[in-house]
Amino acid sequence: MSKLRVCALDDVAEESALGVELDVEGADEPTPVCVVRSGGRVYAIRDECSHQDVQLSDGEVEDGKIECWLHGSQFDLESGKPTCLPAIDPVPTYPVTIEGGDVYVDLRPDMAAGGAKEGHFHTSVGPAAANLK
Ligand code: FES
C-alpha cells in the first residue's frame, strides 16, 4: 500500500471535484485520481470514466455521486458503480484519509496500473471515504 498526499483539503470545495495525477512506485504511468467532497465526506475515485476515456473530475458532484460530463452516467463515490447508463462498469475507488488538513489516498501499484478500459477493477481495501468533523 502506498499512501500519497494528493492535495490540501481546502483545495476541494464542498460538492466539487479535483483531478490530479499521482506517481506511484512500481506503476508504469501516473494514476489519474479524482478527489471529491460531497455531503461532508471526502472520496477518491479513478479520474477516468469507464465508458470512454474522459475525466470524471470535470463532471458535476451531488449527493455522493459524480456525473460524467460527456454522456451523463453517474457513479456512486463510495463503490465506484454506475447508477445509470450508458456506463455499465465500475470505476476503481481508493481509501482516503485526512491528516493535518491534507488529503491522502492509498494506492497499491496494481491498483494504480489497473485501468477501467482494460477491465482491471479493484474494489477499495479500506474506507473509500473520510468523514469531515
Ligand atoms: S464517457 Fe462517461 S458516460 Fe460516456
3D structure, described in words:
The protein contains one helix and eleven strands; from the N terminus they run ββββββββββαβ. The relative contact order is 0.24. The protein has one domain: 3-layer Sandwich (Rieske Iron-sulfur Protein). Strands 2, 3, 4, 8 and 11 form a five-stranded antiparallel β-sheet that branches. Helices cover 4% and strands 39% of the residues. About 11% of the residues have low confidence. It is globular. By secondary structure, the protein is mainly β. The site of FE2/S2 (inorganic) cluster (FES) has 10 residues, from loops.
Give the helices and strands, then pairings:
Layout: E1 2-8, E2 16-22, E3 31-38, E4 41-46, E5 60-62, E6 65-67, E7 74-76, E8 93-94, E9 96-99, E10 102-107, H1 109-113, E11 129-131
Antiparallel strand pairs: 1-10, 2-3, 3-4, 4-8, 4-11, 5-6, 6-7, 9-10
Bound molecules: FE2/S2 (inorganic) cluster.
FE2/S2 (inorganic) cluster is lined by residues 49, 51-52, 54, 68, 70-71, 73, 86-87.
Share of helical residues: under 10%
What is the rounded Rg? Answer: 13 Å
Regarding CATH, which class?
Mainly Beta
Contiguous helical run count: 1
Small ligands present: FE2/S2 (inorganic) cluster
Please state roughly what percent of the residues sit in beta strands, choosing from under 5%, 5-15%, 15-25%, 25-35%, 35-45% or over 45%. 35-45%
Average pLDDT level: 86
Largest sheet: 5 strands, antiparallel
Along the chain, the helix and strand elements come as EEEEEEEEEEHE
Anisotropy-based shape? globular
Report the CATH superfamily: Rieske [2Fe-2S] iron-sulphur domain
Give the terminus-to-terminus CA distance: 26 Å
Per CATH, which architecture?
3-layer Sandwich
Classification by helices and strands: mainly beta
Uncertain runs are 113-126
Total domain modules: 1
The CATH topology is what? Rieske Iron-sulfur Protein
Number of strands: 11
